[in-house]
Amino acid sequence: MSATPPSEPSSPKEGLSRVPTGNAQLDAILGGGFPAHSINIIMGEPGSGKTILAERLIFANAHDSERPILYLTTLSEPLEKVVHYLQQFDFYDEEKLTSGAILYESIAQELNERGIAALVPKLKEVIKTLSPRIIVIDSFKAIHDLSTSVPEMRRMLYEVSGLLTAYATTAFLVGEYSEEQISTFPEFAVADGMVELARKKHGIRDERYLRVLKLRGSHYMEGLHAFRITSRGLDVFPRLTSPEVPHSYTIRETRLPTGVVGLDRMLQGGVWAGSSTLLEGRTGAGKTTLALQFILEGLKRGEPSLYVNFQENPTQLARTIRSMGWELEDALRKGLHLIYASPVELQIDSILLELFRTLEEKNVKRVVVDAVGDLIGAASDLPRLFSYLYALAQHFTVKRVASVMTMETSSLGANPMEGQISAMSDTILSLQVERRDNHFRRTLQIVKARGTNHDLNMHELRITAQGVEVE
Amino acid sequence: MPEALAAPTTNGKMLILVVEKDPHVRELEAHFLGEAGFSVAFVADGQSALEQARERLPDIIITEILVPKLDGLALCRQLKADPTTRGISVLVFSILAASGRAREAGADAFLMKPLAEHRLITAVQGLLALRHSPPPESSP
């Protein structure tokens, strides 16, 4: 058995090597990449990013001309146009084209002359003469549209599938397919993997999503994953899922002082490490000031802290922090991390990705999201947002990060999701502005504090030069 | 393939008998092995392979495990049990991840599908090198 190559798999489970996509996040969604030697469909409307995904993938995998990557264009776009636009991307590398590691070829003429019967002989020819490691056919849907009957298409696909399975190559069939065609078009029956790219209109913005519909013999992350098209190709933001919480895990180990002496007294010392706190109240009730005080207290104690906000840009925030006796530069030096995104351009998935990156890299102990209502306003899909927030709170718990989310309440009625957010919070603080005759005063009341025999009374809250004080 | 290793048996070429049902695999094997300078004959089942092996004494047999009448591993065992055919090198080339079972059946090498020509040709050349290498006691 000495001729057995060392890389030969000895069990089927070892056999699935992967074809990376050139995008670490998409690889994570696909469980490491597309399985090698599989037939995959990349589908979506025109302009959804299919070709860009395929092009990023071929540049990531092109290494030599002995086993090159073959990109076959059909009847949808002229070859010249495809190559012209390709050069706009950062991943474009002319060397890979000139060295023969990537070969672009058009089969439009053969298809025009012989119809779909031209494909199988063409594939046999390229396999025998070029030994391609990856074959992309863009657009395969254009070939489907040329077929004159379903039996003809089925026979052709049977041959294509047999040939591509016999030879050690990974195939990508790119096409403008819609979801309804999955159950009727025979190409979906032969596909081992299917990735759909979609675009949804949300207000004046478009949101793009990617979804794995099938990946034979492989685990993958289900659901919609947001992405953006950039000069790097697709920037993908994997959907947030809840982490596994160990059964024996308990969050009640350490109390973190909030920075407000009166509140800490009401909470018997502060909030639990890893717990989530909701600050709710109307505009001007002191939510942001209290949340910032929680962050500044962390900095005083040497705990790296993260402030995520959608309303105040860094200049406005510097002013607010100064009014509390701090300079922004000092706070940054002491471990303050900021994520700011304008609510107009807010894309929740990208914010969350940045948030997690900061948590991991900076060992953050306290985080404030101010305000959760901005996320609600930006979300095109509220159940999806809720599952995000829930997963987020779970991640904070597992990582022992104490979180504070602020939420504005209105006399016009409850926020959508207010009930759900309240239910998932360990502590809820209600901040109100009360009127007595012509006098207004701010108040604070603990509505809920899991695992704490807390003070139930309403207390006056004052905003002073030193920040928030509670009687 | 080094010329010195070649012991011409068919039109000056080494003969490889391929036991394979899949038409695409057959077509690609015929092409790549032919291009590498081998003479290639095909049968679609293990029983025919056994008959052809006894009759033509090919240099190498490449067999899939999943073939009708007599599976590739049983074929291998019978070839290795028969003094007439024992000297034929057997390469099991299968869709099944069965290198251990192939070894137990007496196969000289195992390769898993799909077909990649450089791996196939390297494996075949490795078998030929073993066939023609001097016995260990006479090596320097």
Description:
The complex is a heterodimer of chains A (471) and B (140). Chain A has 471 residues and is α/β, with parallel strands linked by helices. Chain A folds into two domains: 18-237, P-loop containing nucleotide triphosphate hydrolases (Rossmann fold, 3-Layer(aba) Sandwich), CATH 3.40.50; 255-470, Rossmann fold. Chain A contains 17 helices and 22 strands. In chain A, strands 5-4-6-7-3-8-9-10-11 form a nine-stranded mixed beta sheet. A nine-stranded mixed beta sheet of chain A has the order 16-15-17-18-14-19-20-21-22, with helices on both faces. The relative contact order of chain A is 0.11. The model of chain A is unreliable at 2-14 (pLDDT under 50). In chain B, 40% of the residues lie in helices and 17% in strands. In chain B, helix 1 links the parallel strand 1 (15-19) and strand 2 (39-43). The longest helix of chain B is centred in the last third of the chain and has 16 residues, at 117-132. Chain B is globular, with a radius of gyration of 14 Å. In chain B, 41% of the residues are buried. Chain A binds chain B through residues 1-5, 8-12, 14-15, 37, 66, 124, 127-128, 131, 162-163, 165-169, and chain B through 22-25, 27-28, 31-32, 91, 97, 99-100, 102-103, 107-119, 122-123, 126-127, 130.
